[in-house]
Each structure stands twice: as C-alpha cells, then as structure tokens.
Amino acid sequence: MTYKEALDYLAGLGKFGSQLGLTRIEYLLGLMQHPERRYKTIHVTGTNGKGSTTAMLAGILTESGIKTGMFTSPHLVHYTERMVVNGKQISQTEFAKAIEYTSRFVAQMVQEGYEHPTEFEVLTAAAFYYFAKAKVEYAVIEVGLGGLLDSTNVIVPEVSVITNVTFEHADRCGGTLEGVARHKAGIIKEGVPVVTAAKGEALEIIRRTAQKKAAALLVADEDFVVDHNESNLEGQKFTLSQKDGQAKAYQVKLLGWHQAANAALAIMTAKMLKHKQITAKSIQNGLRSVSWPGRFEILKTKPLMVIDGAHNPAGAKVLRENLDVFFPKQQRTFLLGILQDKDITGIIKTLIRPKDQVVVAAPLSDRAGQPETVAAGIMASHVEIAPSIEEGLRRAQELAGEEGLVCAAGSLYLIGTVCQMLFR
Prior knowledge:
Elements: H1 3-12, H2 23-31, E1 40-45, H3 50-63, E2 68-71, E3 83-85, E4 88-89, H4 92-111, H5 119-133, E5 138-142, E6 159-162, H6 177-185, E7 194-196, H7 200-212, E8 217-219, E9 224-232, E10 235-242, E11 247-252, H8 257-273, H9 280-289, E12 297-301, E13 304-308, H10 313-326, E14 332-336, H11 344-351, E15 357-360, H12 371-376, E16 382-385, H13 389-400, E17 405-409, H14 412-423
Parallel strand pairs: 1-5, 1-6, 2-5, 6-7, 7-8, 13-17, 14-15, 14-17, 15-16
Antiparallel strand pairs: 2-3, 3-4, 9-10, 10-11, 12-13
Helix pairs in contact: 1-4, 2-5, 3-8, 3-9, 4-5, 6-7, 10-11
C-alpha cells in the first residue's frame, strides 16, 4: 500500500461504524501473535485531559532515555499523528506498511467467518504492531472511548490512569454518570496500580473497583496536591506535594491550570513505574518539552487566534476560564462547530457570553451538527452561519478585526481543518 491507499482502506472501514467490544480486536491480535504483549504499557482514560496526560507521560519517558511509543486519537490533521515513537510521528511509508500488514489478518479473519473489525480497531492493532516492530520498551496508550469495551483495553498495563469523569458518551456507556464512571473504571486490572483526579460519585466507583481488583489507588487532592505558582502565555509553574511530605516545583508549556493537574497525574504515574532511568531531572525536563496541539493553543498573535478542541461542557468550562484569565479584555469572536452527538446546548451555555460574536460552521465529519441547529441555541451579540469552515474562518477574522480575538472551538475535526488551512 501507498499512504493514500492506506487512507482509502481506512475510509472504507467507516461503513462498519463505531462498535464497542473486545471480541474482534482480541481475535485480530491473536492472528497477529499479540504484538501488544512485547512491551510494557500505560493505559490512560478520562473525559478530558487524557490526550495531554498521555503526551506528558510519553515526554517524561522519552526524556528519561526510554524508547517510548504513544498512541492517541483522533488526529488533528494527519493520521500519522496517532502513532509516535520517541516524539517522532510515524512516517507515511511506515504507516502504510503497518496498515497493509494488519489488513492481511483482517482479511483472514473475515474469511474465517468473523465479524469485520472497525476502523479504530484496525488502527489500534496497527499501532500495537508498529510499536513492537520499533522495539519500544514502553507505550503510552490513550483510550478511544470509555474504557471497559474500548479496543485498547486488551492491554495489561503497568499503571492505569483515569484523569477525570464527567457526563459524556452516556449513550454508549450506560446512560448515567455512574455508567460512564464504570466504563472508565473498566481499564483497572487485577493488581495494577491506578492514578486518578476523579471526584465525587465517579471517584467512589473507581475506588470500589480498585479495591475489588486489589489495585493500589492514588487520588489527586488526597495523596498528592497541586499548588499553582505562576502562569503566563509561555507556560506555568506549579508545586506538587505528596502525602509523605515531598514537594517539588515543575513547569509546563501547556496553558491552563487544568494542565497542571494533568501534569501531576503524569508525574505520579512516572514515579510509580520505579524505573531506574526516571529521575527528578528527567521528569522536569520531560514536562518542559511537551506540547499538545489543539488544546488552548495560540496559533497566531496578529491577529490573535486561539484553538481548543473543547467538545463537551467540562472542556468548554475550562476554555472559558482560560480565556477569562489570559484574554479578559479582547472582544471574542468564536468560530464554532460541534458534532451532533455532543451536548450542544451545554457547550454553548458554558462557553458563549451575550457580548460575544459567533460564526457557526459544520466540522468535516459525518457526525457534524447542523449549523442551523447549533446557531439556534446561541444568545450572543452577533450570530451567523458560514457555508464552509474556510468561509467561517474568513468571517470570524473579519468580525474580530486587528484588536479582537478569534477562538475556533467545539470539535477537534473543526480545529484540525483550521490548522490545515492556516499552515498548508
């Protein structure tokens, strides 16, 4: 396969939809002789922050001199973003080879009468194969959706990480916050330690699951505490204090206080590995080096432009708080696009103020919410619908002028397209 042929093959798998369950991926990996068992793993789930935490963990391990793979989803612009070794994305050639190799076993599986794997299952298997081929020592694996029945949940990690739990994907995970929490807690394995920043009812479910599985549990604000020191557009400094009295200062480039909380999870997870190459210095240097595109990222300063993949009310709340902290005086013009299966009303009410301006465009996804539906729920000083993201970006910049701020948000599919347009 060429890279284009690999993309065409993956596009063709869209007809199989998104189906939770481990039967297909387990059989596929069995045919591939279980590449996921040839290295150690860390498994990361959570409603928000799992991508950033995954990136910071991978950064710490790589800085420690440990050959490290990282699997994340979705991508912003290119599929190659999903598979990374030592901070370097898989090449298009290697990506095509990994997909072609995996496709042979998919064909064998179907020929034997088994149900066809989904696109995400094929990507997961291909990533596991690529990391084995690259001979990584560790791979940090981000859950796609939920946890319990996500195709990544075939691994038995060294540590499980649950960033937080809020009400999202409830239709796929039991219909309630309790159901969502049970799915997140589903990544907890027998005797495998867990680190989490979950709170309330979700934390209690995680705690009970950990106890049942005899898994040691570290909880943010109980076993370790983050104190924010200072923050600016260059990054932020914070102090992490542990229950045993240890306290150390750290710095991250990622903006927003929530990223300090994510960094704390990464630090505590790295420490739990007790790897001789992971030192206080490598943790500090690893965190300082990490960037994570599309999460409160400043793309341009003149005119000012921020992108954020906030796609649920919790993410919108964090984005709103960050805008209030860093850009309190600028007129805000949003380029907004939200998927139809998200909490559109919750996102809008949380993010948009009456004095803001909003241009609504449809993300490039089969699941895109109709712009008319999204716009109908917005109470702002100016609301308009754009026929395309490109036209929406042009109008948002025009409305903002030289002194205002443009913020593209609501979906990673939307901001990925914006990145492609600005830097193609």
